[in-house]
Amino acid sequence: MNVVRFGVAVLLLHIFVALSAVAQAGKQNADLIITGGTVVTMNAARSLYEDGAVAVRGDNIVAVGPRSEIESKYQATQTIDARNSLVLPGFINGHTHVPMTLFRGLHDDVTLSDWLHKYIFPAEAKNVNEQFVRWGTRLAAAEQIRSGITTFADMYYFEDAIAEETKAAGMRAVLGETLLDFPAPDNKNEAEMLAYTERFLKKWQGDPLIHAAAAPHSIYTCSQKTLQDAASLARKYHAPILIHTAEMKKEWDDSLKEHGMSPVQYMDKIGLLGPDVVSAHCIYVDQADRVTLAQRHVGCVHNPSSNMMLASGIAPVPETRAAGVAVGLGTDGPAGSNNDLDLMEEMDLAAKLAKIAKMDPLALNAPAVVAMATIDGAKALHMENEIGSLEPGKKADLVVINLNEPNAVPMYDVYAQLAYALKSSDIETVIIGGRLVMEHKKLLTVDEQAAIEKAREYRKSIAASLGLP
Ligand SMILES: [Zn+2]
């Protein structure tokens, strides 16, 4: 009996020792903890943690919550002190053309048609090659990281080179190789465009940062065949389809004339629309179009700077959101239609443009535009399972925004501060997939100075190619 009791006691002692060892060393390992800031999760409940923390392991978020809770459960090799800062999901630039940074300011204050035909198409024909897009992408990566953008969707040429530069900069992106019905700087006909796009889609399958896509330019530059060929190629590889949609009045008028229906109805009729499509602009859409976009689970991207600068029109963002369509935000541009890559500016403008359009200050509010820059932008790109909010299991893409600035205090409402008061220059630190890409405003993955100097060189050769001073 005593022997049995002794045995049980020894066993209990062993269990006790084992358990306390677990409790002592019991903290789980993380690679990085961002701690002490106001964590704006953008999860479904819109949870906010005033003295919060985010634990990161590998390229994933493993925990988000109050600082005391996270620090009691996790120990990390690296810690970022985020006191007096906001910590939020990285911004998502849902529509741009990054190499065009090198054409920034080439010619502004002209009509879209003049800008395209007199300046941009000739400038592209004479200057755009693989080296050009590499330097333009590096410059854009520096600018986008500085403004807190961690994911962007791009439509341009030589997209494979853009993918290599984007990956080197540690950024996440949906990159769409452009297909259209006239010779492009990289491919001269549809067969070449399809072959290039197929190689591109194959090469990047399964990459953690790069989502290769097909980008039939628009219904006004692509025949029905080009649109359908591009879409079926993308679908063969489960790749996204990026396209400009209903972006100008002429597109609407021509579509009614040629197809007897709106641009969105035409796209639907030819089988283009689906849950893999990202439609930039969606300005000329009526209620029937909005219902179609929602039913087909198409994502839309609103570009307020571009729409205002080109006087394209005002996208009915509140109505499109109300119809159940995911609407993100984009910079478009950066040449001739913005001219910068600053998504915080787009948040501010999206809200104010909707207000003045309706003469109603309630038309689109701060929480809505912050969502458009983060979780709704992720939904518009069909990436909401991966990015857009700070939640365990999602990619560790986040920004730390400094609140120790005159324009940052006092703060009564986090969302209003983000939309209307804070600037991208307040962004201090940026993390993409668990990797620090900017720390205390110092870029860690892009040689910013080299890109700036190269842009000045390109300014000379581009101007010379067009006979400009
Ligand atoms: Zn565009």
Structure described in brief:
The protein has helices at about 1-25, 65-75, 110-125, 130-145, 160-170, 190-205, 225-235, 250-260, 265-270, 285-295, 305-310, 315-320, 345-360, 365-375, 375-380, 415-420, 450-465, and strands at about 30-40, 50-55, 60-65, 75-80, 85-90, 90-95, 150-155, 170-180, 210-215, 240-245, 275-280, 300, 325-330, 400, 425-430, 435-440, 440-445. By secondary structure, the chain is an alpha/beta fold. The longest helix is centred in the N-terminal third of the chain and has 23 residues, at about 1-25.
Give your account of this protein's structure.
The structure is a single chain. The chain has 469 residues and is α/β, with parallel strands linked by helices. It has helices spanning 2-24, 67-73, 112-127, 130-146, 159-168, 190-203, 224-236, 249-259, 263-269, 287-295, 304-309, 317-322, 343-358, 366-373, 375-380, 414-421, 448-465; strands at 28-40, 48-57, 60-66, 74-81, 85-89, 91-96, 149-156, 172-179, 210-216, 241-245, 277-281, 299-302, 327-329, 398-402, 427-432, 435-439, 442-443. The strands form three sheets. Strands 1, 2, 3, 4, 5, 14, 15, 16 and 17 form a nine-stranded mixed sheet that branches. Strands 6-7-8-9 form a four-stranded parallel sheet. Helix 4 crosses helix 5 (159-168).
